[in-house]
Amino acid sequence: MKSVHFFISTVAALAFATFLVSAYDPSPLQDFCVAINNPQSVFVNGKFCKDPKLVTANDFFLPGLQIPKSTANPVGSTVTAVNMDNLAGLNTLGISLARINFAPNGLNPPHTHPRGSEILVVLEGTLYVGFVTSNADNNRLISKVLNKGDVFVFPIGLIHFQLNVAIAGLSGQNPGVITIANAVFGSKPPINPDVLAKAFQVDNKLVDYLQKQFWYDNN
Amino acid sequence: MKSVHFFISTVAALAFATFLVSAYDPSPLQDFCVAINNPQSVFVNGKFCKDPKLVTANDFFLPGLQIPKSTANPVGSTVTAVNMDNLAGLNTLGISLARINFAPNGLNPPHTHPRGSEILVVLEGTLYVGFVTSNADNNRLISKVLNKGDVFVFPIGLIHFQLNVAIAGLSGQNPGVITIANAVFGSKPPINPDVLAKAFQVDNKLVDYLQKQFWYDNN
Amino acid sequence: MKSVHFFISTVAALAFATFLVSAYDPSPLQDFCVAINNPQSVFVNGKFCKDPKLVTANDFFLPGLQIPKSTANPVGSTVTAVNMDNLAGLNTLGISLARINFAPNGLNPPHTHPRGSEILVVLEGTLYVGFVTSNADNNRLISKVLNKGDVFVFPIGLIHFQLNVAIAGLSGQNPGVITIANAVFGSKPPINPDVLAKAFQVDNKLVDYLQKQFWYDNN
Amino acid sequence: MKSVHFFISTVAALAFATFLVSAYDPSPLQDFCVAINNPQSVFVNGKFCKDPKLVTANDFFLPGLQIPKSTANPVGSTVTAVNMDNLAGLNTLGISLARINFAPNGLNPPHTHPRGSEILVVLEGTLYVGFVTSNADNNRLISKVLNKGDVFVFPIGLIHFQLNVAIAGLSGQNPGVITIANAVFGSKPPINPDVLAKAFQVDNKLVDYLQKQFWYDNN
Amino acid sequence: MKSVHFFISTVAALAFATFLVSAYDPSPLQDFCVAINNPQSVFVNGKFCKDPKLVTANDFFLPGLQIPKSTANPVGSTVTAVNMDNLAGLNTLGISLARINFAPNGLNPPHTHPRGSEILVVLEGTLYVGFVTSNADNNRLISKVLNKGDVFVFPIGLIHFQLNVAIAGLSGQNPGVITIANAVFGSKPPINPDVLAKAFQVDNKLVDYLQKQFWYDNN
Amino acid sequence: MKSVHFFISTVAALAFATFLVSAYDPSPLQDFCVAINNPQSVFVNGKFCKDPKLVTANDFFLPGLQIPKSTANPVGSTVTAVNMDNLAGLNTLGISLARINFAPNGLNPPHTHPRGSEILVVLEGTLYVGFVTSNADNNRLISKVLNKGDVFVFPIGLIHFQLNVAIAGLSGQNPGVITIANAVFGSKPPINPDVLAKAFQVDNKLVDYLQKQFWYDNN
Predict the structure, then answer these.
(1) Which keywords fit this entry according to its UniProt record (chains A, B, C, D, E, F) (predicted)?
(2) C125 close to C106: Cβ distance less than 8 angstroms
């Protein structure tokens, strides 16, 4: 485990997180299956495909990932996801990408990807990252401080987090799919307070307080 | 969403949870691959196989699932897991089983299965169960009160929980793999308090308190 | 191989069989894909999905598995299957469940699951169960007598059977998909008698007799 | 369903059956994984791989498939299988092949492939082939008479058979893995006679007779 | 590597190539999914299925593979492919077949199968076959001369070729999906000449010449 | 198709290419399977795993991806691959990463990934990229000019290329696995010249010339 010394800082950070959505059906029966919106409100597992004859280069293209996005939000970070919803050619290929901007003192709260592993590369700044192993492995924390050019891997389904600790500034961002705090305390409708009071060993007042927080969803 | 009325109760509950460990390699190249301990501290993805010629019926057999286990523990419940570790024939078949005993007022805290979906059947008592959808679906709570003979499904990777609310007694049990509270507040070593304070919007004192709790791992 | 002593008995039995339908696409591209009936008589591999925005807890719920079903049928048993046809939320999750009621002296005739492994737990009574390995393993019989609380595994695709031999009462039930006797002698239209006469080394008269039997399909 | 007229004949037949062993791991992490015998009686799911640096063309090569084999056996046919056991390069590629020689009046008894679909092409003679759908589809017989150059498909796990009916000569061959009659009546040790008597609706005397037959395994 | 001596010859050749299209979804949720044309110009990954109730034996049947096809074309060969486009029952079964006729002096130019491994059996004549390993293995050529009855395997995705060298006659055929020369020099529109000049270390004149060739697509 | 105007330039480029190695076994049976060197020259499909108890954060970490590498080589580019060989934690997670440095006037020659799709993001400069569809789609060229921040997708198995055309400078790099020109003209031993002469419709002299070229492998 890394021991991390914290100093004041206003250094921002930037990272690319690529995560594999384990589609388990990478274009099995044709060259590609460019996603289209489900016609006539009929749905399939994944997406319907565009007529291959009408497919063009633009179906595999997405511009603008270099444009910085404001990180003026409660978590001080912004994720720009690239997936089949905005890059149709990714459908069935089982891979996606995200650009993450970190403001100083942000945080990527603990989260999981229910259907993907993640590989992260730091482009700017310093991140303190970690994941927690499952119960069978006694919930060990596997953590590391990453600097520019470092790469780190987060196995599928495990809870992990990322902070911008560049010279110990704290900032964070969630490229993930399930933000633990949001899911546990911010679900709609709320989870029965007795569940959470018992689960977190706190009284119902605190649960009530936590459930009343505004949870900013940065995805 | 279910609205649930709570009354005093001491009714226990019993459930079978079967969950699919998505092995994605169900005995592809032979009839079975009965697990053996990794020889010479060499490891593979999954387990090495027993010599097929030496395989007997006992390799596919596990007795004693009817024996009640004490639920005298902090969460008031006990899970009896049946997986490749105690039933070697399950190796590569991608399926496992668990018997769950619920004492009154127990709780199965929110958890996820990183590698499996779950189907639950209630044998005794009443359970209040639910899961929370991912961020893309706005973390909706999908919950239900289950009575004897009811079946419920928890999709792979989503955070879910189960309580014994038999006539509103609260008890719980975790057939799962990652207990959120344990993983977040009970990891070894602990997650940096600043991460958790920011993630849960509480001060470091509370995080410190939470991290000091004894977290009973009921798996 | 178990040597089994048979005595008269009228003890019934009850078992849960959970079998994994190896869907190989466990919710790869969204949280869930709740099955709906194929619209406009168009079909896909598996099922079309319900609009996720319209999904509720009831889509993951099935009541009534505790209700005993009459076993007054030729095989003296009844299976209550829980699959995507009656529990839509199971679609793409690759798992299903079955409750099996055994009357005395029933039988689960040899059968196979073309697309699933099975794990069985005995809730009441005693079952004599077994499976036969493939030709490469010389069709070995792997069998065992199971009592209350015992668990047994049947690998994908192998022919297996279950009898209620509680104190040697014979009863059976087929949670499976292909009943060998039905498929071989009860197909519609019938298989050419010369095939079966040669296959089973009996004369055409017996084949004719067997094909004339009423085959009760207990699935 | 085909109606087939039978006349005397001594015409032999020849077919190639290719069946896909659904390995579900087609060389995922390197170009190939040439099978070697399990070292030190340690086993894995599938086979260990030869050192890639030592791999040569001969590892992907098998000669002699044109050599006719004697069909002087009880089923009047011989199968020459090509799989990872005799063509090591096939390991992890999920495909295999078989040459089938049919003597007149042979039979390929009903059988299943627990882990593969099959595609058959007739090189000589005429075959009467069929498969039986699962219980959910009411065990329909899907059958056809095939002549030289015809191709037929047998879906994974379904019971099927093939006869040489070249001008109605009967001969057969089993490219499969589980021969139903062998597995049901010829298992070692035998299945409890009460099971089979009930399953096939015949008396124990006949079951005893059937179990006493010599079952030739032509694989 | 084989050293091959070449003599004049006019011997033709014939081969069956079976290749596995790694569909990774072999009929997971029903017995079969017989392909139908996409209705209303809607597309899915693979094909929509025919109503199972309307499926007949003809959906699994294709006649005429014995009929020789003219090899009077620039590559002196013809492939007769059997796949889900002309044999609907193959849909989702992950397997296909091809008959290959070789005229003297034809050639199967280097090609790859993006989604399948291949197993080849020589029915007539002699073929000189080979594949090239990937960069990580230093692009080794694995080649062999095959005679009647020989079998050879080509791992998924690797570039390979086949020639009829029966007593050194040259003939070829492409059972594959991507013909390298066609794809590189015959794409529509053409690849930028600077790319190819640099890639093949030749001047633009030659690239221009190559791009002007008529590329016969024998698939 | 893009029409591209070319001007002189010396602008370098930088890109990240992430490609999914379709491992089809993403950590199915434990949290992770950190790769170790094959012990005692025994090999498995993929890699053996490190003892989980000995796994640390460094097993998921690789530093130095920001360090520019010399592009002073024949193709004027360098790829820095991040895969299970240098980042052991990636084993079984089915994902990998590559940093690509482009010198002016380099080229990423046409290549394929036999086992992966690729997603590319441009960090600096401008790339002219494209892929060619398979024969069934008539080898269409799908190409595009990408600028800083643009993302492009290359489906699994299809031949593709990338050039640095920043203001039309040409440079390239191959993050791929099979470089077509290397594999076809630079294999060891060489492919029979008659094959290539016929395949590319050129005389043997040119083939001889091409085979004599030094092929720099930039992977």
Answers:
(1) Apoplast, Disulfide bond, Glycoprotein, Manganese, Metal-binding, Secreted, Signal
(2) no
- CA–CA separation, A46 and A33 (whole Å): 10
Read off the tokens for D127: 């075959």
Nearest residue of chain B to residue A140 (CA atoms): B188
pTM metric for this prediction? 0.77
Confidence band of C169 (pLDDT split at 50, 70, 90): very low
List chain D residues with pLDDT less than 70.
Answer: 1-12, 16-29, 38-41, 45, 74-75, 105-109, 115, 165-184, 186-188, 191-192, 194-196, 198-199, 201-202, 210, 213-219
The domains of chain B, with CATH numbers, are 57-176 (2.60.120.10), 181-212 (no CATH)
To the nearest whole Å, the CA of D24 is away from the closest chain B CA by 6
- Cβ-based neighbour number of residue F63 at 10 Å: 16
Find out whether B94 and B28 touch, Cβ atoms under 8 Å: no
How many other CB atoms are found less than 10 A from the CB of residue B168? 19
Query: ω into residue D189 within 30 of 0, thus cis?
Result: yes
Using CA atoms, how far residue B206 sits from B193, B201, B215, D3, in Å, is: 10, 10, 16, 81
Query: What single DSSP character describes residue D59?
Result: G
Q: Both tokens of residue B200?
A: 């849960």
Identify all chain E residues contacting C42, using CB atoms and an 8 Å cutoff. 39, 48
A29 CB contacts (<8 Å, ≥6 apart)? Answer: E21, E23, E45, E46, E47, E84, E115
**Tokens, residue D25:** 């791991």
Under 8 Å CB pairs connecting chains C and D tally to 192
Of E129, E130, E126, E128, give the one whose Cα is nearest residue E167.
E126
What residue ranges in E156-199 does DSSP mark as E strands?
159-164, 178-179
The pair of three-digit structure tokens given for residue E120, joined into one six-digit string:
């080849």
pLDDT at D22: 45
Interface test with F, best of E1, E198, E209 (most F CBs within 10 A): E198
Given a contact cutoff of 8 angstroms between Cβ atoms, the answer to whether D122 and D146 are in contact is yes
> Which of A24-28, A187-191, C15-19, F148-152 has the highest average model confidence (pLDDT)?
F148-152
Strand partners, B116: B21
Mean pLDDT, to the nearest integer, of C31-40?
A: 76
Helix (H, G, I), strand (E, B) or coil at A22: coil
ipTM of this complex: 0.76
Closest by Cα among B82, D46, E140, E110 to F159: E110
Instruction: Check: CB of residue C55 under 8 Å from CB of residue B143.
Output: no
SS3 for B67?
A: coil
Q: Inter-chain contact A42–C48, Cβ cutoff 8 Å?
A: yes
Q: Give the closest-approach CA distance of C88 to chain A in angstroms.
A: 13
- What does the DSSP 8-state code read for residue A31? S
- Give CA–CA dist D107/F142, Å, rounded: 53
Q: Which residues of D touch F22 (CB under 8 A)?
A: 28
Type of residue numbered E197: A
Residues C149/C121, Cβ–Cβ less than 8 Å: yes
Q: Under a CB-based contact definition with an 8 Å cutoff, are residues F97 and A119 in contact?
A: yes
CA gyration radius, chain F: 19
To the question of whether residue E5 is assigned a binding role by annotation, the answer is no
Q: Are F207 and F193 in contact (CB under 8 A)?
A: yes
- What is the rounded average pLDDT of the residues B5-22? 53
Tokens 């499904």, located at residue: B153
Separation of alpha carbons A73 and A214, rounded Å: 12
* CA distances in angstroms from B124 to B14, B94, B101, B121, listed in the order given: 5, 27, 10, 9
Residue of B nearest to D43 (CA): B49
- Kindly report the nearest CA distance between residue E96 and chain C, in angstroms: 18
Token pair 């089923």: residue: D75
Asked if B195 and A139 come within 8 Å (Cβ–Cβ), the reply is no
Chain C interface, best mutation among B80, B113, B119, B138, by max C CB count within 10 A: B119
CA E185 distance to own-chain centroid = 18
- Which pair of structure tokens corresponds to residue E24? 């990774």
